[in-house]
Amino acid sequence: MRHAAVEKFCLSLPGATLSVQWGEERIYKVGGKMFAMQGPKTRKPHTLFFKAGETSFYILTQLRHIIPAPYLARAHWVYLERLDALNTKELKAYLERAHAQVAMGLSKKKRAALGISKRPEF
User: Fold this and answer.
1) What are phi and psi of 81, to 5 degrees?
2) pLDDT (tens digit per residue) in 78-112
3) Distance, CA of 37 to CA of 67 (rounded, Å)
4) Is 43 left (phi over 0), alpha (psi -120 to 50) or beta?
5) Which value, to the nearest 10 degrees, does the dihedral of the CA atoms of residues 89, 92, 96, 99 take?
6) Domains detected in the chain
């Protein structure tokens, strides 16, 4: 998956927004809370951080080019040192889960305002 495709996919998720912070880091949020973060397009190779569940964190960090995210690992975030560490289908599934995990932590009222009505099924 390419840098622009990751951004397009993240922003296609319900209630997702983009914030550029800490220089040129591209932060994807739902309800004001981060679910993924992508390095600047100019930095090669392209990198990506995202929230993972406890089990997914363990599985993903056993793979090549995926490590515990610096400063965020205690909250089960992973760091893809390159976007091709996962194939497109897998990456999209993990990004959907990251979005859902963060969205489910929002209040019912906030989820409804963002158009997120129920718990996703995986």
Assistant:
1) -70, -15
2) 999 999 999 999 999 999 999 999 998 888 888 88
3) 14
4) beta
5) 160
6) 3-113 (3.90.1150.30)
Residue 13 near residue 3 (C-beta atoms within 8 A) = no
Strands (E), 52-107: 66-68, 77-80
Pick left, alpha or beta for residue 80 (phi over 0 → left; psi -120 to 50 → alpha; otherwise beta): beta
Q: What is the pTM of this model?
A: 0.89
Upstream peptide bond of 40 is cis (omega within 30 degrees of 0): no
- Does residue 88 contact residue 73 with C-beta atoms inside 8 Å? no
Question: What type of residue is 7?
Answer: E
> If you count DSSP H runs as helices and E runs as strands, how many of each does the chain have, helices first?
4, 6
Reading the block at residue 104, the tokens are 């489910």
**Computed from CA positions of residues 78, 35, 2, 22, in that sequence, does the dihedral angle turn out positive or negative?**
negative
